[in-house]
Structures are given as C-alpha cells and as structure tokens.
Amino acid sequence: MRIKLSVNSEKCRKKAMQVAVVADGVTSVAMEGEFQDELVVVGDGVDTASLIMALRKKACHVTLETLEEVKKPQKKPQVEEKSVTPHCCIAQCPVVSNEQPRPEVYRIVHDSYGPTTGCLVM
C-alpha cells in the first residue's frame, strides 16, 4: 500500500515509519516519492484501516494513495538431475583408493571341549 503524508517534515516521516513498522503483518516499510512524502508498506494481512488511523493519531494526517496485492513470482519447478543408482549395494562395493587390497586372513579355532552345538553345563 502507498500512503501519502501531508506534512513534509523529518519528525513526521520518522514517527510514521515507527508506527508502520510495529503494525501487525508488516514486512517492510520504505519512503518514496519526489519529496520523500510517500510511505510504502508491504506485508501479509496488514489491517489498512487500523494502520491509517494509528498514523493519523500518532504521526500526521495521511491519505491512502493505492492499495494493491503484490503477487509473488511463481517458482519454476526445478528439473531434478538424474541420479545414477549404484549397481550393487554399498556394503558390496569395493572401496576406491590407491592402496592395494589386503587379503583377509581367517583363523580356524578347534573347540577342545567337545561338540560346538551349544552351551553345556558341567
């Protein structure tokens, strides 16, 4: 929304900015115009009537110039890059490194106490 300030003084501009910034739903406030006499307020769900009344009460006389809905530019759907699925699971894939593969050594241990089918209580 664009609000025209009737008094062109630094005090009025500063007070108007302070009032507009604390209003509910306001995301940004800026001064524009040839004489910096227009207050541009951007926000979501801003109560225009209460903001105008608060500005008139606390800052100076103001008039509502324009009120328009700012549409956000729609985002284009991002094209996902095709990911290459591995041909084997991670656990089976060899580790790529500059080291030579080391042979795995297994030690066979014989149970001298008897059969290895389970735990026996002596």
TrEMBL record:
Spell out the InterPro entries in the cross-references. HIPP47/16
Task: Identify this protein by name.
Answer: Copper transport protein family
